[in-house]
């Protein structure tokens, strides 16, 4: 009886330990702004009205101006251009104050401010230990700034034309380096139509890719291995699929579509046209999905299947509309001044 009792106790202990090992690990939340959407509000050009709003993923909760709330009512600045993420850190790129506010992306507590050598910064990307920031005043400042792991300035690369969108893919950094001029009737004309590749191993340009249409670059996004460039003129659009490792590309024509903005969600491409229609892109074909309501196409993104579109105002609060994958309007929100972007956090 004693042996049987001891064996039963041992089996029970083994079962208990096994169950404990199989118990799910509950991850502690990293901050109040984890698992939501950050809304970037550009603000007015001459007034410090830039801000960031937070939306919960289920769209039930909205909190405005979270940078100010979490940093003793600090003013973010003017012309909030874009956000970049590196680990638990968010980089808030502000064009007019010539600074980048570095914050914890989940608590929004300020960590650092970057200002060295910034001249109207625009967009940001990361590769290895380096940070890459485009600077562009559409006149005589056209450069890519490079910073090290401590956010100290390393060097600039100057370009003949613009330096706009910047992305990282497969160990390389790609910069939008096209330009624009205007004819006597103020119609926009492209001046150079290139994407420039920077090798982070040397932090020098190692390739310049010339696109083969006669339009202007509208947008650029990337995944791990590919860079996608949206270009177009007054009649047609083109999607370039650049293999990041080699710099070779495939061009897909989108006849009769004036595409405006590009987005990637769960490895699928979407874009919105000047006619305010949302398209999905698969293989070499674009499929129209639904129309959206907006006065101007400004902020556009697709996140977890939902489409976010801003109707911006620059002297008062903007309107943001959120649609599901079939085009049903889920929510209409009041967001900050000049809403220009949406970021999953």
The residue fraction in helices comes out at under 10%
Which residue ranges are poorly predicted, with pLDDT under 50 across at least 5 consecutive positions?
Answer: 1-5
CA-atom Rg in angstroms: 23 Å
Count of alpha and pi helical runs:
2
- By DSSP, the count of extended strands is 30
Strand line-up in the sheet with most strands: 3-2-1-30
Task: Characterise the protein shown here.
- This protein has 2 helices and 30 strands.
- The protein is mainly beta and 345 residues long.
- Strands 3-2-1-30 form a 4-stranded antiparallel β-sheet.
- β22 and β23 form a beta hairpin.
- It is globular, with a radius of gyration of 23 Å.
- The chain starts with a helix and ends with a strand.
Keywords:
globular; 4-stranded antiparallel beta sheet; mainly beta; disordered N terminus; 345 residues
Short description:
It is built from two helices and 30 strands. With 345 residues, it is mainly β.
């Amino acid at each position: 009886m004693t042996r049987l009792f001891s064996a039963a106790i041992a089996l029970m202990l083994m079962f208990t330990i096994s169950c404990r090992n199989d118990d799910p690990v509950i991850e502690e939340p990293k901050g109040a702004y984890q698992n939501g959407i950050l809304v970037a509000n550009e603000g007015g050009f001459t007034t410090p009205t830039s801000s960031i709003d937070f939306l919960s993923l289920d769209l039930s909760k909205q909190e405005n101006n979270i940078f100010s709330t979490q940093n003793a009512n600090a003013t973010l600045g003017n012309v909030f251009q874009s956000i970049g993420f590196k680990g638990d850190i968010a980089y808030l790129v502000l064009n007019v104050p010539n600074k980048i506010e570095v914050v914890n992306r989940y608590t929004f507590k300020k960590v650092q401010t970057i200002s060295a050598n910034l001249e109207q910064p625009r967009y940001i990307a990361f590769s290895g230990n380096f940070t890459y920031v485009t600077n562009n005043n559409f006149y005589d400042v056209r450069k890519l700034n490079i910073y090290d792991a401590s956010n100290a300035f390393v060097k600039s690369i100057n370009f003949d034309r613009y330096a706009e969108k910047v992305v990282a893919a497969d160990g390389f950094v790609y910069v939008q380096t096209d330009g624009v001029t205007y004819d006597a009737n103020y119609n926009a004309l492209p001046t150079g139509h290139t994407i420039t590749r920077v090798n982070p191993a040397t932090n020098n340009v190692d390739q310049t890719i010339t696109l083969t249409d006669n339009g202007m670059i509208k947008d650029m996004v990337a995944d791990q291995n590919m860079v996608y460039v949206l270009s177009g003129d007054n009649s047609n659009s083109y999607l370039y699929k650049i293999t990041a490792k080699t710099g070779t590309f495939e061009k897909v024509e989108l006849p009769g579509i004036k595409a405006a903005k590009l987005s990637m969600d769960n490895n699928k491409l979407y874009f919105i046209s000047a006619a305010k229609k949302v398209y999905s892109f698969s293989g070499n074909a674009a499929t129209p999905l639904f129309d959206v309501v907006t006065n101007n196409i400004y902020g556009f993104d697709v996140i977890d299947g939902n489409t976010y579109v801003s109707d911006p105002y620059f002297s008062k609060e903007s309107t943001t509309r959120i649609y599901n994958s079939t085009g049903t309007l889920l929510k209409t929100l009041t967001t900050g001044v000049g809403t220009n972007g949406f970021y999953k956090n």
